[in-house]
Design goal:
This protein is α+β, with helices and mostly antiparallel strands. The protein is built from 12 helices and 15 strands. Bound molecules: 2-acetamido-2-deoxy-beta-D-glucopyranose.
Length: about 500
């Protein structure tokens, strides 16, 4: 009876300990030893300050066992670390906090490891054991409930507090985010080790709610763009009006497409919807680029030949990555932008471009050869619409049609850049494409007459022929502007041509 009592106490203690570790109130001891399926060198074991994980997955009908160490810093959010979650029917995952505890073989979903240290069969359990078995889970449940209520109230208080003061409250996010981590570290960690599509939603929300807005930097049809501060660094915050919930959702969804991250596509950080009782604030947080849009940049500055090639090549690289489909589990679908223009491209500090505003983009599901949303006929900016979009002859069943329409718009952007190129002391003033042929804010009808009926295109001046770089740019533009979409260049082709040009002209990217 004495040993039974001890066992019960031990079991209770173990439950409590596991619970405490689970909610992150005490630090798990250093150098926890775990089994490790991919550590041949160190004898199939590893050491960690975090947790041991065992997981069993079914891949193409085959059962695969993985045992690994998880570092403490990756155990976010606490209580339900993303690395420890099972996926119904596919993946059974178990995290634990004692030496070699991940040696278990998970097979049955929700399978609990056998209690090796419990003697006897369930039939021979004494009353104390039974009490422990029944009281243990009840105790755990009550504790979780109390902790839950406490955390909820704490969160509410902080949230209300922040709403009132609108200042950064550092007391809340320490639970989730190590204090010394910058956003870049966080995103780097997760895009290299995780799914490759960005921060977990929970972290996104925490980041978004600790941003302090500084100044408004732009207004658009969807809402406003602000510069904000997060841990001393600048971020851009696009705030959608609540009417635009669908645009917000769509843009966040596109930015979180797996493997989308690229140096020439605007870096997405977080999406958040704050409900303050009367209305919902919809935020999209991204990297901040102080030069602003290519449109602003070209209005302010002329560019050198080198500067022009850098802008053009980086824009082509970004678009090529967007358009490209990468096959495999870590692959990415092809994406068409559908609203490419100089106002939707940002200029980074190093003079290269980042493509932004993916709210109208469409993704291609190659397995079913379908497009992920029903695309409506004419979206985007009228001035930049391809001829087949203006006269509604575009074949919307065919994904490549949208890519070809993007290329047409890229050609117009190239024309805007090339006009500002300072070669031999000459450069032109900034103008929008078709500035001389249509009024400001042209109607679709006005654009169609010029682009489809009269088949006019922006003027490529003769003097561009005397400079190799401008000659090449002029040639690319013309090949982007064909009335027949299928005849246009691809983004990859443009990227290759401009790479050659950049080598020839000795441009350092
Ligand atoms: C886990 O590691 C321990 C100690 O090295 C070893 O005895 C055990 O067999 C391992 N378990 C599995 C399933 O590999």
């Amino acid at each position: 009876m004495r040993s039974d009592g001890n066992l019960a106490v031990m079991s209770l203690r173990r439950t409590a300990l596991a619970l405490l570790v689970l909610i992150g109130l005490i630090a798990p001891g250093d150098a926890l030893k775990c089994n490790c399926t991919n550590c041949e060198k160190s004898g199939y074991e590893c050491e960690t300050d975090g947790a041991c994980m065992a997981s069993t997955s079914y891949i193409k009908g085959q059962e695969q066992h993985v045992r690994i160490c998880i570092p403490r810093e990756s155990l976010i959010p606490p209580g339900q670390p993303i690395y420890c979650l099972s996926a119904e029917g596919v993946l059974n995952t178990h995290c634990c906090y004692t030496d070699y505890c991940n040696s278990v073989d998970l097979q049955v979903p929700n399978g609990v490891p056998k209690h090796e240290s419990w003697p006897g069969t369930p039939g021979s359990w004494g009353p104390v054991e039974l009490v422990a078995v029944i009281a243990g889970p009840v105790f755990v449940f009550c504790l979780l409930l109390i902790v839950g209520v406490f955390l909820f109230q704490h969160h509410q208080r902080n949230y209300n507090h922040r709403q009132r003061l609108d200042v950064e409250d550092p007391s809340c996010d320490h639970l989730y985010l190590a204090k010394d981590k910058t956003l870049q570290d966080l995103i780097f960690d997760l895009s290299t080790s995780g799914s490759g599509s960005g921060l977990p939603l929970f972290v996104q929300r925490t980041v978004a709610r600790t941003i302090v807005l500084q100044e408004i930097i732009g207004k658009g049809r969807f809402g406003e763009v602000w510069r904000g501060k997060w841990r001393g660094g600048d971020v851009a915050v696009k705030i959608f009006s609540s009417r635009e919930e669908r645009s917000w959702f769509r843009e966040a969804e596109i930015y979180q497409t797996i493997m989308l991250r690229h140096e020439n596509i605007l870096g997405f950080i977080a999406a958040d919807n704050k409900d303050n009782g009367t209305w919902t604030q919809l935020w999209l947080v991204s990297d901040y680029h102080e030069h602003g849009s290519l449109f602003d940049y070209l209005n302010h500055y002329s560019v050198t030949i080198e500067g022009m090639i850098k802008l053009a090549l980086s824009a082509a690289s970004g678009l090529a990555h967007l358009h490209m489909e990468i096959l495999g589990t870590q692959g990415k679908p092809g994406i068409a932008h559908r609203d490419l223009k100089s106002k939707n491209i940002l200029v980074k500090k190093n003079g290269t471009c980042a493509i932004a505003d993916l709210g109208l983009a469409v993704r291609h599901e190659s397995i079913t050869d379908t497009i992920d949303i029903a695309p409506n006929q004419r979206v985007g900016t009228k001035r930049y619409m391809a001829p087949e979009v203006l006269d509604e002859t575009i074949n919307m069943k065919h994904f490549d049609s949208f890519k070809c329409a993007d290329i047409y718009a890229l050609g117009l952007v190239y024309w805007e850049i090339a006009r500002r190129c300072n070669a031999g002391g000459i450069h032109e003033e900034y103008q929008l494409p078709y500035y001389d042929l249509v009024p400001s804010d042209p109607s679709i009808e006005e654009m169609r007459k010029v682009v489809c009926d009269q088949r006019l295109r922006p003027n490529v001046p003769n003097w561009w022929q005397s400079y190799e770089a401008l000659r090449v740019m002029g040639k690319i533009m013309r090949e982007c502007w064909y009335a027949n979409g299928a005849a246009r260049l691809t983004a990859l082709r443009i990227k290759k041509t401009l790479s050659q040009l950049s080598v020839q002209e000795d441009v350092k990217m």
